[in-house]
Each structure stands twice: as structure tokens, then as C-alpha cells.
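Hi support team,

I've been running sequence recovery on a batch of backbones for a student project. Most finish fine, but this one hangs at about 90% for roughly twenty minutes before it completes. I'm not sure whether the input is malformed or the queue is just slow. I've pasted the C-alpha cells below so you can try to reproduce it. Let me know if you need the job ID as well.

Thanks,
M.K.
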């Protein structure tokens, strides 16, 4: 018996697959703290975390794992998440970066999937472009509160989008628009942040975790690449977004299918027996082995 026996429906090799995969989490202030906790519980073995901020008092309404003691000590969010993950799974490997994710690009290139917890449109756009470049599935979470009008209260709503090769990107789905980027630029530096609450963040994070697990285990097959799940917090309903359902373009017009890869990549570094080689993302393994055989046979 193991601590993961109750999720054997994920497949005969699911425990090993989850233990071997690497998940990158960018931004840890709200939804991604739920994601970190849940992924540790399901047995994900490798994490790359990036967030430049320390915990503050205003984070306590939504930061899973954060405590008033952490606030007093001004603990880095990445350190809080690392401690929480290791408390759940001591065998996990957790690489932390207390800085902007762009300054840790080499680490995030190794990830099998990246989950974003960013609350700004430009950050989402940049992370989606990075993941498209390196063929990494990207899961974006977004939550907001909208005033419905005098006497009608507020609408809590959000979405989870999986952007991956063969699927629409965030621009295709209207998550990132030129208008939103321009509006955000005009408001740059303004005080205050978007309303956030722990329960809606938790719903969106759980949907994101389900997509992560679905990518590497055979428990359920998606009909096509990508996903766009819309959440209505007032009714409690989650549904596939109509925009995604109707998207039927031959390919994403924003990112060329040939504008991918790392110019500095050298396949010879990954020849079997080279102990100095860096860890290789699971999604690359089959492609690398085919390339190695082709390269060695041509020598």
C-alpha cells in the first residue's frame, strides 16, 4: 500500500509518471498556492516556482499555506510554497526563484507544463508566448469580481485556459487583447489590486490541477487540444466556453508552428551515457531518442 493507492484509476504507471514530471508555477499569490498544494497531494515530484514577492497581510485571505507568522517574518512566497510541498511529499524536488520568472527561463524550459497565476494581461501574454516557443502546455487562471449595478450585488467569475500546440492561444480566446494591454499600460503603477477570494481561486485551481493530471495520465481523454473552462461563481456552474467550442481555425494565427525551439540546444549533449546532461522534460523524451539514433547512425 502507498499513499497514492486511492488514485490508481489514473493508470497503472500514473504514480511514476506524476513523480517524474516537472510542473512550473509562475506567481504564487492566490490560485497557484492551491495548485501547489494539490499537485503535491497527487504525487507530482518536481516543481519550479517563481515569485519575487514576500507575503503581506493582504495575502492572508487567499494564500494557502500562509500564516500570520509568515507575515511577521516577511517570508518569501516561494519559501512558503516549498515548505508546504515538502511537508506533504518530502521526496519532492522543489526549485525556487525569488525573482521574475523571465530571469529563470532556463529552468522553466525544462518543465512539462506551466501553470500561471498572474493577474496582469501582459504577463499572461509573455508567458503564453514563452510556452508556445518551447512547446510547453500552458494553463492560465483568471478571476475577477464585477459590479452588476446598483442593488444587484457582484458577479464572481473566472476561467481556466489550456494553451498548447494545436489549440487556440490566449489571444485567440480573447484573454489577451491589444485593447486590454493598452488599458493596462495606461493604469500602470496605479494603487490597488483586483479583488480576490479564496473559494473561487480554489475552484479555478482545482480545474487547473485536473488539466495537469489529464496531460500525463490516461484517466480521461480530451476531444481536442486545449481547453477553456468558464466559471460563474454566483451560480456555481463550470462550462466549456462558447468561444472555444466554436473555434475551428486550421491553426493559431498568432504563433507560427515553425517558430519553436531553442537555438542553443545541442542534441549531442543528451547522448546516452552523458552524465553531465541536464534533466530532460518528459514530453521531449521520445523525440530526443529518435534524434539521437538518427544522429549517431549518420556519424
Amino acid at each position: 500500500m502507498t499513499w497514492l493507492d486511492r488514485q490508481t484509476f489514473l493508470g497503472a504507471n500514473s504514480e511514476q509518471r506524476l513523480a517524474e514530471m516537472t510542473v512550473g508555477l509562475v506567481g504564487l499569490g492566490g490560485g497557484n498556492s492551491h495548485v501547489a498544494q494539490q499537485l503535491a497531494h497527487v504525487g507530482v515530484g518536481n516543481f519550479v516556482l517563481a515569485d519575487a514577492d514576500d507575503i503581506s497581510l493582504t495575502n492572508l485571505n487567499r494564500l494557502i499555506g500562509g500564516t500570520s507568522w509568515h507575515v511577521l517574518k516577511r517570508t518569501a512566497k516561494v519559501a512558503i510554497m516549498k515548505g508546504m510541498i515538502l511537508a506533504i511529499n518530502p521526496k519532492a524536488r522543489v526549485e525556487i526563484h525569488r525573482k521574475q520568472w523571465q530571469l529563470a527561463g532556463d529552468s522553466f524550459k525544462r518543465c512539462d507544463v506551466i501553470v500561471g497565476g498572474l493577474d496582469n494581461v501582459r504577463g499572461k501574454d509573455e508567458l503564453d508566448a514563452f510556452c508556445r516557443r518551447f512547446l510547453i502546455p500552458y494553463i492560465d487562471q483568471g478571476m475577477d469580481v464585477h459590479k452588476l449595478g446598483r442593488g444587484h450585488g457582484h458577479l464572481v467569475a473566472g476561467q481556466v485556459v489550456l494553451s498548447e500546440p494545436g489549440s487556440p492561444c490566449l489571444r485567440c480566446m480573447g484573454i489577451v487583447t491589444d485593447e486590454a494591454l493598452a488599458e493596462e499600460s495606461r493604469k500602470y503603477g496605479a494603487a490597488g489590486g483586483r479583488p480576490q477570494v479564496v473559494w473561487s481561486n480554489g475552484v479555478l485551481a482545482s480545474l487547473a490541477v485536473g488539466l495537469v493530471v489529464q496531460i500525463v495520465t490516461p484517466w480521461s481523454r480530451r476531444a481536442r487540444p486545449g481547453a477553456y473552462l468558464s466559471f460563474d461563481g454566483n451560480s456555481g456552474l463550470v462550462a466549456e466556453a462558447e468561444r472555444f467550442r466554436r473555434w475551428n481555425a486550421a491553426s493559431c494565427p498568432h504563433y507560427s508552428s515553425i517558430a519553436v525551439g531553442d537555438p542553443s540546444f545541442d542534441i549531442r549533449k543528451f547522448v546516452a551515457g552523458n552524465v553531465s546532461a541536464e534533466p530532460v522534460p518528459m514530453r521531449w523524451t521520445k523525440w530526443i531518442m529518435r534524434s539521437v539514433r538518427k544522429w549517431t547512425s549518420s556519424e
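--
Follow-up from support: It reproduced on our side and the slowdown came from queue contention, not your input. The mean pLDDT is 87. No action needed from you.
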